[in-house]
Amino acid sequence: MNAKKMNKVATIVLYTIAGIIVTILTSLLLFILVRGLPHVNWHFLTARSSSYQAGGGIGIQLFNSFFLLVITLLISLPLSTGAGIYLSEYAKKGPVTNFIRTCIEILSSLPSVVVGLFGYLIFVIQFQYGFSIISGALALTVFNLPMMTRNVEDSLRTVHHTQREAGLALGLSRWETVVHVVIPEALPGIVTGIVLASGRIFGEAAALIYTAGQSAPALDWSNWNILDVTSPISIFRQAETLAVHIWKVNSEGTIPDAMQVSAGSAAVLLVFILIFNLGARYLGKKLHQKMTSAS
Fold first, then answer.
1. Residue 265: enclosing H or E segment and its boundaries?
2. What is the C-alpha to C-alpha distance for residues 133 and 137, in angstroms, rounded to an integer?
3. Model confidence pLDDT, tens digit, residues 255-287
4. Which residues are CB-neighbours of 245 under 8 A, at least 6 positions away?
């Protein structure tokens, strides 16, 4: 068989494999959406969940998911940005840098349930935060920090070295060059990574079962005391998220319409994750176009 025939066969095989994968993923997405979206309405999105009666919603769980996402990003963004800048701009090749990179690779490969158990032992028990939003956010920071750090580092490394040299030639210090030249140029990739990480945080369940808790107590929306566990903005209250709620409904099944609630919750969760992923692509493309036109 000559080279042209081999190339044609290889191309057909690769396209076939890609088509099978796309078909499987599309079928799975359509199955979840078609099965769940008919059960989604305004009452379902805003009402409290029910433990024993039919007709409950996911209002508190949905709010908990977004609130936990915000707290996690507030903790992980400064850490991942600082670590990415250090590894890209300041770290010299050597055993210390290699050790740091090895630790990042190991942490990024840990199963989320292991991170959840670690969070339970350290944040829930040792630090005595109990099952709370802060425990869940810290566990998710450990879970998500390696990916975000690597994203920041890779985005900074894509900036051509001539731009750094230009900043230094203008009399800027190394730190000023990083802040005013390198980071703005790498911003599209950094923002894309943050949005993708947000989708990962939003859909996480295993790590939160052992840290944020499995209950969603009623919230007093007139109370804005961060230390009061009945306040919506308290980081010391238990917070069952949407992903944990899906697991709980399927594992316990104590409500009559458990299948409908599970299907609707899964559809809502999938829609938001799709929004995060599509939004990451859109924001990255727009920021890249803006930076290109500005330069």
1. helix 258-294
2. 6
3. 888 888 889 999 999 999 888 888 887 887 777
4. 49, 58, 61, 216, 265
The answer to whether 134 and 212 have CB atoms below 8 angstroms apart is no
Q: Domain residues of the chain, as ranges?
A: 40-294
Residue 159 to residue 180: CA distance in whole angstroms: 13
Q: Half-sphere exposure of residue 246, counting CA atoms within 13 Å on the CB side?
A: 20
3-state secondary structure of 247: helix
Instruction: Give 90-106 pLDDT, tens digit per residue.
Output: 888 888 888 888 888 88
Q: Which amino acid is at 14?
A: L
Q: Is the pTM of this model over 0.70?
A: yes
First to last CA, the chain: 50
Fold classification of 40-294 (topology level):
MetI-like fold (1.10.3720)
